[in-house]
């Protein structure tokens, strides 16, 4: 069947009403969504055209003065109905059979109405730069399948002011053959609350757990190491789970930035642990070396009275004095008396330089740089992460 205009040399005007009945969420991987909708077409043709159609579709006793209602799949075989198609449609199903209403107004004009309910899966190219703070705009473009705009023209009959999914506009393709277009636009706004509970809060907690490792002493060894490594592995697994729900894209999105910065903070905690462990071991080697060399180093100076100068006392001298007095200690069974005699011979005075006593030489401990690094890390780490979180949310929420 062909489209027939009621005015010579003028396109057939199809007034269209579109109503969304059900709308599914966007499938991010396939970049598509499914819509269940109701659509109605109204147009006018010559009255003789309607009379012939009634003779084919209805019984001979049909009253032509009243609206005639006809249903069934055979309608399109007997009378032309609008051949509107959807661009980027991937699957389409007719949920209800079309209903044709024929209303012969007078001997010149006839008013035709077709109601259809259909379900369509439509592709929607996604812009995920701001994901998950994004708003996706998906449009359904409908046009005639066979007739250019100079033969069939589609227009909106009316637009519900409360229905923000419809856009009353007519577009044409920049091609040699132009088609009349109807477009319906949907705005998908993502609810960030659910995503925050599923991703942002857990990853923030993971970064905080890695930070807690700085409050554990380096002597704990494996315990502190696991407190850094496990958050790192958990963060990788969490991000892989989120990326599995997204299509393959070649650009960086907001969640990539969040993940990379969180990964950098956790890796910083691991690097800080490595540095602290190195400094701690280095200091332990220095302390051990000093301990080994202590026997050969002077620990005190004994000032000899009557002007005979002084004598350097080492740990070996101290041990020799103790061994020389072991027999006397065994015979006297008086440890207190032995130590009194030892103190009289080797009087150690730390605070005063007594000429008649012994002045102890200072043995300074090496600086604990591992502890210093930990203290600096405990302050800088949370401040830097807080600055990043504030900057990230302000940037994308605005």
UniProtKB/TrEMBL annotation:
InterPro entries: GABAA/Glycine_rcpt (IPR006028), Neur_chan_lig-bd (IPR006202), Neur_chan_lig-bd_sf (IPR036734), Neur_channel (IPR006201), Neuro-gated_channel_TM_sf (IPR036719), Neuro_actylchol_rec (IPR038050), Neurotrans-gated_channel_TM (IPR006029), Neurotransmitter_ion_chnl_CS (IPR018000). It holds the Pfam family Neur_chan_LBD. The chain crosses the membrane at residues 199-218, 225-242, 257-280, 379-396. Coiled coil: none annotated. Keywords: Cell membrane, Ion channel, Ion transport, Membrane, Signal, Transmembrane, Transmembrane helix, Transport. Residues 201-305 form the Neurotransmitter-gated ion-channel transmembrane domain. Gene3D superfamilies: Neurotransmitter-gated ion-channel ligand-binding domain, Neurotransmitter-gated ion-channel transmembrane domain. It is a multi-pass membrane protein. It is found in: Cell membrane; Membrane. One of its GO terms (molecular function) is ligand-gated monoatomic anion channel activity. One of its GO terms (cellular component) is plasma membrane. PROSITE patterns: NEUROTR_ION_CHANNEL (PS00236). Residues 9-166 form the Neurotransmitter-gated ion-channel ligand-binding domain. Signal peptide: none annotated. This is Uncharacterized protein.
């Amino acid at each position: 069947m062909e489209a027939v205009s009621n005015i010579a040399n003028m396109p057939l005007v199809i007034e269209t009403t579109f109503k969304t009945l059900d709308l599914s969420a966007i499938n991010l991987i396939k970049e598509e969504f499914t819509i269940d909708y109701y659509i109605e077409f109204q147009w006018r043709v010559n009255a003789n055209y309607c009379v012939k159609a009634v003779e084919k579709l209805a019984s001979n006793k049909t009253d032509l003065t009243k609206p005639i209602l006809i249903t069934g799949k055979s309608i399109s075989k007997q009378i032309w109905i609008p051949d509107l198609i959807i661009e980027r449609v991937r699957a389409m199903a007719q949920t209800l059979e079309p209903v044709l209403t024929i209303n012969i107004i007078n001997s010149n004009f006839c008013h035709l109405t077709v109601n259809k309910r259909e379900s369509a899966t439509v592709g929607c190219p996604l812009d995920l730069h701001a994901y998950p703070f994004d708003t996706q705009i998906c449009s359904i473009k409908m046009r005639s399948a066979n007739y250019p705009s100079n033969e069939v023209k589609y227009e909106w009959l009316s637009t519900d002011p409360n229905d923000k999914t419809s856009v009353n506009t007519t577009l044409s393709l920049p091609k040699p053959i132009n088609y009349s277009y109807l477009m319906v636009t949907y705005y998908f706004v993502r609810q960030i609350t659910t995503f925050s509970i599923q991703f942002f809060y857990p990853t923030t907690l993971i970064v905080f757990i890695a930070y807690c490792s700085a409050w554990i002493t380096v002597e704990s060894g494996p315990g502190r190491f696991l407190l850094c490594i496990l958050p790192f592995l958990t963060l990788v697994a969490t991000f892989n789970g989120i990326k599995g729900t997204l299509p393959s894209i070649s650009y960086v999105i907001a969640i990539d930035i969040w993940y990379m910065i969180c990964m950098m903070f956790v890796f910083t905690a691991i690097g800080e642990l490595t540095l602290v462990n190195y400094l701690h071991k280095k200091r332990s080697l220095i302390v051990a070396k000093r301990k080994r060399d202590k026997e050969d180093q002077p620990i005190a100076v004994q000032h000899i009275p009557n002007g005979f100068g002084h004598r350097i006392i080492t740990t070996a001298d101290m041990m020799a004095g103790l061994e020389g007095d072991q027999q006397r200690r065994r015979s006297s069974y008086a440890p207190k008396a032995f130590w009194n005699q030892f103190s009289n011979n080797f009087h150690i005075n730390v605070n005063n330089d007594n000429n008649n006593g012994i002045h102890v030489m200072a043995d300074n401990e090496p600086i604990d740089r591992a502890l210093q690094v930990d203290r600096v890390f405990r302050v800088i780490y949370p401040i830097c992460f807080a600055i990043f979180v504030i900057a990230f949310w302000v940037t994308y929420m605005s």
